[in-house]
Each structure stands twice: as C-alpha cells, then as structure tokens.
Fold this protein.
Amino acid sequence: MSEPLSPSARKVQLTLEEAGFSCLVTELPASTRTSKEAARAVGCEVGQIAKSLVFRGLHSNSPLLVIASGANRVDEKRLGALAGEPVGKADAEFVRTQTGFAIGGIPPLGHVKPLKTIIDEDLLLYKRIWAAAGTPHAVFELDPADLEKMTGGRVRRIKS
C-alpha cells in the first residue's frame, strides 16, 4: 500500500479529480525541484518536464504563470510582448501568495486564484509530459493537450 500524499500534493490530486482529470499524483523520494532532477526521477527527457514559472507584470503587478518545457529558457522580452507589459521573475513570497505553493512544486492548477497562463508550444511535441504537484517531490503525468483544459492557458512560443 502506498503512503498517503502530503497536504499540498493531496490538494493537487483533489483538484485534478474535481476538474475531471484522471492523472495520478505521485510523491517520489528523489527531488523534482528542477527540471533535470524531475526528469531523472521519473525517467524522461528534460523537455518533457512542464516547469511552472511565475512572472510579475512590472506595471500591473499581476502574476503570469508560464508552463515551459524543462529544456527551454523563457525569453522575457517575448513574454512581455505576449503579456502586454514588461515582466520580471517573481520572488518566493509573491509566488506563494499568488499560487498557494512554494517555488519548486508549483502545479499548473489548484492555485488560490486563477492565473493568466501561457503554455510553451514545445510541450505539445511530446506524447506525455510531467508537471509538479505541490511539493518538490510530487509530480503527475499528463497529456500535453490537457494543459490548455486545466489552465485555460494560451499556447505560445516562449523561447528566443
């Protein structure tokens, strides 16, 4: 029998179920905090890791969630153009306040309030991807097309 999920991972599992997704949250002994660690822990390519990054609009102070392929760096100028204002990486306090989760475990859904979301088009190149599930040790596997349904996000090019 498996161990019960931690409170944050359980919250993500319940949110997935309530939204009609059959994804299963798994907590691993190895860290999944970075894309490389996550890929090593689940046995996939780094590009299959859907990393959730929170940016802050420099004029509006609004959060922007970017779900990027673990193999890509976000081009902040391109992202700013998509957001309609310059953006900067959000600090840990802003991230926790806006999402309810700490950096290193931010899932694509289940935040304290809905977030404007942009999804890296490169994630759609894979049949299956892995996303964080509330802690630096929790993940779930999903079909990349489900990210749009989960988040209401727009698929865009986010790398240079």
User: Anything to note?
Assistant: The beta strands are 26-27, 49-57, 63-69, 87-89, 116-120, 129-132, 138-142, 154-156. The mean pLDDT is 96. The two ends are 46 Å apart (CA to CA).
